[in-house]
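hey can u run this one w/ inosine 5'-triphosphate bound, need the structure tokens asap thx
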Amino acid sequence: MITFITGNEHKVIEARGIFKKFGFDIDHENPGYPEIQGSIEEVAAYGARYVADLLNKPVIVDDTGLFIRALNGFPGTYSSYVQDTLTNKGILKLMEDEQDRYAEFRSCIGYCEPNCEPKTFLGTVAGEILSEEKGDHGFAYDPLFYVKEYDKTFGELTTDEKNECSHRRKSMEKFAKWYSEKL
Ligand code: ITT
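ok here u go:
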């Protein structure tokens, strides 16, 4: 059993759907961990190692960011703070006069066993920032993020649909494949 460390219930629901496809279930705990200043890979690696040593068992963490090209990658590693302060409305305001709407979600899974080196697994998905929010599924930045393949925002997709193509699907799938081979 793998323990997923997060304070975000939406991530847990998505993770359960994704991992079911690979035949394993997960446990969920939220002891918290220090989020260092650095790339999402560094945050995930540090967090996984910290919690694996704290709880003395193998864990995964997920650090995610929305990287908007016209804003030089902002909010990126500040996505959590920006979601709580500027909110989606603030992002739309910053993007008002931008022609280039390209953005990426990046999810990095950090896996670690006690007293071991952490491993990281990155998943990205490309999309566009719309000029208004659409849809009331998903969470946080989802209603802003339009995916061409579905002609919908993540906010208009069901959890199952988002789980077919999302950044988190890709990072968790990479981890699940690696982990299955290791078992
Ligand atoms: P944990 O660190 O406890 O896992 P968190 O919500 O703080 O939970 P992140 O730091 O990884 O997670 O997320 C940064 C921000 O991006 C935060 O505001 C999230 O709500 C948002 N976010 C993460 N994944 C998302 C997704 O799939 N769709 C939309 N927004 C997302």
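Residues 2-182 form a domain with the Maf protein fold (CATH 3.90.950.10). anyway lmk if its weird
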